[in-house]
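It is worth pausing here to work through a concrete case rather than discussing structure prediction in the abstract. The textbook approach is simple: state the sequence, then state the predicted structure, then interpret. We follow exactly that order.
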Amino acid sequence: MTHGHTNHAPSPEPQRGCDQITAEALNGVHVSQHTAYRTHHCGALRLNHLNQEVKVCGWVHRKRDHGGLIFLDIRDHYGMIQCVLEEGHPQWNLAESLSVETVVQMSGSVMARSENTRNPGLDTGDIEVVVRTLTVLSRANALPLPVNTDADYPEDIRLTYRFLDLRRPVMHQAMIMRSQIIAFMRAMMVAQGFLEIQTPILTAPSPEGARDYVVPSRLYPGEFYALPQAPQQFKQLLMASGFDKYFQIAPCFRDESSRADRSPGEFYQLDLEMAFVSQEDIWNAVEPVLQKTFEQFAPTASVTKGPFPRIPYADAMVMYGTDKPDLRNPLIIRDMTHQVHISIFQSMVEKGGVIRAVVVPGAMQQSRKFFKDLEGWVMEKGAKGLGYISHGSDGLQGPLVKFCTPETCDVLKAHVPMDGVVFFVCDMRDAATTLSGQLRTHLGQLLGLIDESAFELCWITDFPMYEQDIATGQIIFSHNPFSMPQGEMDALMHQDPLQIKAYQYDIVCNGIELSSGAIRNHRPDVMYKAFEIAGYSKEHVDQQFGAMIKAFQYGVPPHGGSAPGIDRIVMLLAGTPNIREVIPFPLNQQARDLMMGAPSPLSAERLEELHLRIIRDLGKKPGVNNPTVAV
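Step two, the predicted structure:
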């Protein structure tokens, strides 16, 4: 017997590259689909199962009543199967009463669909199950959000009912992809001889740039554990312990604000550390893992081949206006402070400002509206107007030409191709860097210059060891405080701190930072001096990093590492701009778990156990209680 059908999204398929890992892991192991509840998964049945008696279990994805026939699309983790009952079936009324997402068990015979009712979009689209018995395992109430569609829905509802949201095909597939990416990367690391070691979750506070999540101690009144911002100290201590190559899929916890590519609270990274290595050794270990991961899970995309470009931080800030450049954008920013003389820029240059230029080939062909809209955009960013010069068959044109010397015009003709336009930004260095970087990105997007099917990876190297706090003027660490300064003790003793570079490096993909890393400072004398420059006393270093300082006094190899972010890698491969779309149970933008109701108050008994009490300060914001914790 054959019946009709409707189209459905294809069932989730394993991503390329993971079948091989699974096959190797399960070599010699028999994997059975048979359980007390089912003989086959919903996505497993094919034409070779014709006339077999089968049992399947799953959720009612859709129900269609065609008069004398009821069609039930049953979905489980592995796929979907169409089941059918004819009118007069003993359980017809039960089938009619089923709501979507009710969990059922079906037994029956596998039959072929007729040629004109087959569904090529479904793996099981050539067959259906003619139902003999129907058992309801769990009924579903009316749904607060639809599950059998990938239509957009308010995020607060989706996160409150995340267990339903994750049933939607696109979300379910994203979690499958996440699992497979982690398995693939883990296998790559093991193949390189890395040893997977778990480090503690309850630890001591660490000044790593973000706020710690703290956990009060029941046994030690007034004392607190911290959740690790990263396994930084522990992985360095593993190198001091004689391990050569460490890694883990590490959970990290930071009490910081949410943004599109960063989830508040908790995130995961491929944390690694190696002994007796230089920067090149780290790069050579990380590059094949990332390159092959992107190639395996985006097989039609263009992926940067190793060795990845290495771009010094200072060059990146000039050429791209950011230390997270999107290399898919071919536009390059040039510093023309000393190459051109444009009179309206001179007063800013004399005050220490810079002139940055973005040359855009072919932009002269754009409409007047294009330039008008672009001027409005730069003014929204705080600029006074849009300065540009175009190079056409009639020579140089544009609002800035009249302010240029003849020598400057000659320079511009040499730098700007025919029909090209050069856009100028003139301001103090930091402001000019930021705006020129934003302008480069905006022009790349407006003109369609960015290849959306590519993953462009690069290393940003030679970060400054220190920077100056704008508010206080104090010298502070600009990156990881545990990094080895280039030049080591000699640099710390004799160089201007703001000129010292560190053996620090980031890896960036499509304008998103995937990881930070460094060659570590393994010498106690250099560490004390590095922290002294940043305003930390020897006593403070001993108190905060006592275990590391102590370990380093008993012989420790030069070492270094990196930590690519798992969530961001999955986000890029899934093609979503929002990192919460690839995390199973994320906090919302306000760092709340709407599903579990966290954070939440503690009972009076629990507070007493932890030696805490709540003080409500009514003075901070009228009409609102602002509880603070006292020990």
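Step three, interpretation. Residues 4-17 have pLDDT under 50 and may be disordered. The longest strand covers residues 53-65.
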